[in-house]
Each structure stands twice: as C-alpha cells, then as structure tokens.
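lol so apparently i was supposed to do this last week
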Amino acid sequence: MELDTIAAISTPLGEGAIAIVRLSGEDAIQIADKLFKAPSNKRLTMVDSHTIHYGHIIDPATNAVVEEVMVSLMRGPKTFTREDVVEINCHGGIVTVNRVLQLIIQNGARLAEPGEFTKRAFLNGRIDLSQAEAVMDLIRAKTDRAMNVALGQMEGKLSKLVQRLRQEILETLAHVEVNIDYPEYDDVEEMTHQMLIEKASFVKDEISKLLQTSQQGKILREGLSTVIIGRPNVGKSSLLNSLVQENKAIVTDIPGTTRDVIEEYVNVRGVPLRLVDTAGIRETEDIVERIGVERSRKVLKEADLILLVLNFHEKLSEEDIQLFEAVKGMDIIVIVNKTDLEKRIDLDKVKELANGRPVVTTSLLEEQGIDELEEAISALFFKGNVQSGDLTYVSNSRHIALLTAAKTSIEDALVGIDAGVPIDIVQIDLTRCWEQLGEIIGDAVHESLIDQLFSQFCLGK
Ligand code: GDP
Ligand code: ZN
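anyway here it is w/ guanosine-5'-diphosphate bound
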C-alpha cells in the first residue's frame, strides 16, 4: 500500500517543556534529513535504525538555525505505524515547534489528521480494528477506570476473545464439512451433532457475557447521565457544587454539541457522572420552566441516574410525591438534605416511596453525608458486579451491534440444530456468526480464506 508521509505535533501527555514532532511514511527520513544538521555532519539517511541524534533544525531556504533538537529515527516495520518514523524532540515553546512542523510540511509531508498514525498502524496490519478504536477511546477516556478499559482493549483483550470464539466456530465448521464429505460414517455424524450443540452453546454464552458488560462499558466511556431534581430551595445547587468541588470536574462544556442542555462531568470513585442540565439548576432553579415539560420529561427518561433531593426540615409535599411518581422504575438515589436543621420530614414515608432504592441523609451546608452519597452512587453503578480487572468491557457501539448480530446468528444455528434442519443450513448461520465476529477486529471476509482453513482441518484430505 502506498501511503504519503504524514506529520503532526504529538506532545506527550501531561505538562512538559518538550514537544515532539512526529513523521511517518516513506519519505519521513528523507524529509527530516533535509532539515537536520548534526555537528558531525552525519546524514539521517545513513544512520542505523532505532537511534537518537543530537543536532539542529535548519531552515534550508535561509540556512537559519530554527531549533536545537534530538531526533529519533526508526525504520519500518518495527515501528508503531510499521512505516519509517522520525520523532523530533524540540525544547522550545509552541512557536518554534510549529515552525519545525511548518518546515516539514513545506518539504513534502502532509499534516496528519487526528488519529491518522493509529489508522496507519491498522492499515499496515500492526494492530486490529478493535485495538485502533481503543486508541481513540483512550484519547477520550474520562476517568482512570475508563482508561483501563481502553487500555485492556488496546492490549487486545477483546481481540483475543473474539479470535478464540472464531476459532471455535471454524473448528466446528470443519467438522460439519467432514460430516458432509463422509456421510457414510455414522459416528462422525453423532459426534458432529453433539459437538455442534456444545460449541455453539459455548460461543453463545461467551458472546452473552461480553454483551452484559456493554452497558457498563458504554457508561464508562460516555458517563452516567445524571439529573438532579427537587423542589426549589431543597439544595440542588448546593449538591451540584459539592459534587463538582469534591470531584474534579472533567469537562465543563462539550464543544461541537448543539444541544442546549449543559453538561458537566465529575468523577465519583471512578464512575463518571455526566450531570445534565446544570444550567437549569444554576439559573432558573426549575428544569421544567427552563426547557419545558416535554423536554424535561425526555431528559428524565434518558437519564441513567436521578438524584432526587428532599428537605429534612420540611414535611413531604404533594410536589415531592409527584416527583417520585415521575421517576418510577428508574435508578434514583434519594437525598434528604439539611439534617443540621430540625427534622420535619417523615423518613419512614420517604423510604416507603423510595421503594428499596437508596436514601441518603446529608447536610450539604456542614458537608455531612457526602461520602455516603458517593458510596451509594458507586454501589449502584457496580450493582452486584465484582470489579475485576480481568473483565473485558465492551464499550464501543459498533462492537455491541456486531456482537448482538453474532449472538442472533449463533442462536439461529442452535435452533436449527435442535430442529434437525439440514447441516448445510446450520453451516450458513455459523459462517455468518464467524463473519460478524470478524468484523469486530476488522478482518476482511474471503471465501477463499475459509476454503483454505477448511483444507487444513479436513481429515485425510
Ligand atoms: P436549590 O434551590 O434546590 O438549588 O437549593 P440551593 O442549593 O440553592 O439551596 C437553597 C438554600 O438552602 C441556600 O441558602 C443554601 O445555602 C441552603 N442549604 C443548602 N444545603 C443546606 C443544608 O444542608 N443545611 C442548611 N441549613 N441549609 C442548606
Ligand atoms: Zn439553587
């Protein structure tokens, strides 16, 4: 594949005086060589791979020294993109770094698109599609836990599992093939039937397990959509402020979104909360007044978590009870606030209305009960799920769609086997499942590949 040479500033994560300009592609070394001057006058085109060189970047038009640099040179294919890669470490500020990048562009490289280095790694077969997607997720990861999911996926956890399942299906298909080729052997057919059920059930169970993690995975990636509701003056703004202050807000506004609902991200014990409509709470105090009944109903409906705030110092009102009605069947945490004041609320009645869902008492004024609230949020999110580092989360919607389709296919196969339909029909379902799983890791599907694999499996052929 012929790919042009790309370049970009790839500043390392975190603060640092050093910025790196990275080039990748066929002409990467040649372009860098045009601009680089070492004290010894050595040429980058002549040096060994995976070596680092001290020198200066010179503007070839004027011969002026632009920057003092360290240049790392790596020839493909032992690089991230599998292409020739040059990394220029600059010490100066952003202005000089940009100047270096400009010179590189002027001398034949193209500015890389976001994620394009990763895309190349995929195109050149260095990583599979799910790993490439994980790199993208990693860039966007909002909490440490989300980062771990992305890292795990990048290391190929999901890929390995998917490959294992595909292997199972392939072996099964090979046995089916044997059965078709040697129909006269009864015991082969026996085994095939038994094995088909076993293998197909195994694959189905594994896919189901993966899908079960998908909701959590999605939430880890996108945040738990959270809405704070309650009558005026119960402490909604205070709650929002306390959550934002205690837990570093991660994103205050999302560029590029056109929705008029303002969101704020906080990280509560590794659970990213996306606090929806914080403006409604901050400004008008009334979500319904601000965005209208229809929209507020929609916001409530789409929420993953509702924080319903009540006043400890006041009797339950008709409005409070209506709020409970509005969030029937949803994940809610009831917060009874202002415990520093005299108790006037009927807590037993509150618990009855909460109907088994958590009730936390707080005094936001005196910063009491916030730990318990955070504990409740975390417990709700990790409901009954042991937090295992081994768990492979599926968090990407494309993967979820493909896994769902693959599950349907394998279920179809199982139904077919059970009903005793001709084996070549079952074969079609199994093959489809194999293909759908393959799409997760970006495998092109070739009939010839299947043929080739069959030829290896088939006995005595
Ligand atoms: P909102 O209308 O629901 O957003 O309520 P606010 O957060 O704006 O709070 C209304 C008033 O109650 C403010 O004067 C707060 O300082 C006060 N407040 C909030 N939490 C507490 C608390 O735990 N105890 C007491 N005594 N006052 C509180
Ligand atoms: Zn308020």
